[in-house]
């Protein structure tokens, strides 16, 4: 059996006060405060393809979600924490003994942290959404350069409070995360980090790195709590404040793929890739200063593939539809390979016809996956996924 969801909404809470992003009502429910929507009765539904599979072959939604958590979410956040820890240590070593070698080491650790974050940032639900952690980890896009100006002002004015990790955590989200640290390490004046001429810049960078590590640690710990968000997601039921049944839990998982594909293609890629070279905006690309633009795209698709494989969501498809799972895997791998082929400055990649073709193909792959997952896969599971996390409707 299955349950058809008429649509997903970004701003309108669904029953039990929950949608693809936690609303104010859902957060109240999470804290144990009842919502009107939770008065409706619900049953726990195993994830089965519209009754096409016999009961003995049913794949339980709770098992799918638990595999996603144990096989992907928890280890991915642990890996991010490890990289953030190494980044913080490297930053402190640079501040203690400025040198080009130590600066190079920090930049290497920064790229490693970007890789780790790009894999797990597809999980835009749960603990990362609390306390503005998502925006504090990465404030992007910064279309009006508001965040950039705040970072530049802190560096120019040598704001002592910004160099204190505890006080930095209370400041603008744009000053606290990977975007801010990228400017410290690669922006105007970054070369002075290799000598003793600018100790404030290094101190501020160390505070930002420490803040990133704290966020990574807090989110990782939250996902490992026995009574936290992970338990709610993996154990849907009538008394659950966020997920009334298995269909709602799996809907959240499928939404991760659909939302992130749209984000990667329409915001990350098309934010700098124009319809022709004259329309390109390379300085609108994420991580363009550190040359990590394509690595971020690689991580996003690799993360989606790892999540899909870990959850074994494809096992819930009927035998006639199992081809979808293999196709999703192949396309995610191919898209990641397209991005992996692009290294170096993104502006130079855009002027190389062969590399530009890789970016065009990357766009086609993500569009194909959006159709495959957002239309074909959801139809197999009896879900209606006519939603967009970006259109604000």
List keywords for this structure.
single chain; mainly alpha; Peptidase M75, Imelysin; signal; Imelysin-like_IPPA
Tell me the series of helices and strands, N- to C-terminal: HHHHHHHHHHHHHH
Number of beta-strand segments: 0
Helix content: 55-70%
Compute the gyration radius: what is it? Answer: 22 Å
Distance between the termini: 30 Å
**What class, by secondary structure content?**
mainly alpha
Low-confidence stretches: 1-57, 385-393
Number of helices: 14
Global geometry = globular
Largest sheet: none
Mean pLDDT: 86
Percentage of residues in strands: under 5%
List the helices and strands and how they pair.
Blueprint: H1 24-30, H2 61-96, H3 100-120, H4 133-137, H5 146-157, H6 165-168, H7 178-186, H8 199-223, H9 229-234, H10 246-269, H11 293-311, H12 323-340, H13 346-350, H14 353-380
Helix pairs in contact: 2-3, 2-8, 2-10, 2-11, 3-7, 3-11, 7-8, 10-11, 10-14, 11-12, 12-14
Q: What do these coordinates show?
A:
- This protein has 393 residues and is an all-alpha fold.
- Helix content is 56%, strand content 0%.
- The chain contains 14 helices and no strands.
- Helix 2 packs across helix 10.
- The protein is globular.
- The two termini are 30 Å apart.
- The N terminus and C terminus are likely disordered.
């Amino acid at each position: 059996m299955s349950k058809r969801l008429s649509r997903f909404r970004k701003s309108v809470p669904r029953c039990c006060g929950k949608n693809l992003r936690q609303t104010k009502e859902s957060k109240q429910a999470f804290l144990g405060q009842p919502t009107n929507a939770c008065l409706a009765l619900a049953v726990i539904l195993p994830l089965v393809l519209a009754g096409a599979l016999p009961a003995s072959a049913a794949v339980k939604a709770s098992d799918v979600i638990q595999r996603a958590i144990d096989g992907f979410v928890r280890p991915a956040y642990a890996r991010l924490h490890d990289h953030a820890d190494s980044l913080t240590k490297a930053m402190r070593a640079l501040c203690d003994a400025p040198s080009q070698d130590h600066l190079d080491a920090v930049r290497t650790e920064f790229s490693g942290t970007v890789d780790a974050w790009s894999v797990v940032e597809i999980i835009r639900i749960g603990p990362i959404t609390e306390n503005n952690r998502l925006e504090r980890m990465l404030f992007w896009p910064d279309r009006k350069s508001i965040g950039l100006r705040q970072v530049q002002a802190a560096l120019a004015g040598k704001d002592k409070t910004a160099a204190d990790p505890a006080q930095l955590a209370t400041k603008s989200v744009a000053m606290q995360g990977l975007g801010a640290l990228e400017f410290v390490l690669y922006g105007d004046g970054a070369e002075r980090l290799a000598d003793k001429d600018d100790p404030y810049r290094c101190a501020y960078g160390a505070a930002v790195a420490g803040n990133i590590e704290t966020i990574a640690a807090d989110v990782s710990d939250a996902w490992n709590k026995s009574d936290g968000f992970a338990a709610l997601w993996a154990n849907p039921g009538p008394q659950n404040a966020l997920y009334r049944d298995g269909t709602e839990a799996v809907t959240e998982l499928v939404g991760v793929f659909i939302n992130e594909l749209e984000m990667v293609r329409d915001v990350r890629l098309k934010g700098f890739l124009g319809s022709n070279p004259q329309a390109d905006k390379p300085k609108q690309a994420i991580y363009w200063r550190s040359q990590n633009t394509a690595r971020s795209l690689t991580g996003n698709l690799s993360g989606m593939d790892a999540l899909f494989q870990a959850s074994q969501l494809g096992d819930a498809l009927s035998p006639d539809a199992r081809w979808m799972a293999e196709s999703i895997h192949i396309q995610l791998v191919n898209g990641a390979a397209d991005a992996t082929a692009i290294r170096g400055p993104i502006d130079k990649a855009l002027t190389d016809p062969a590399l530009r073709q890789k970016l065009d193909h990357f766009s086609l792959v993500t569009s194909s996956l959006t159709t495959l997952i957002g239309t074909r896969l959801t139809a197999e599971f009896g879900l209606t996924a006519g939603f967009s996390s970006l259109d604000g409707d």
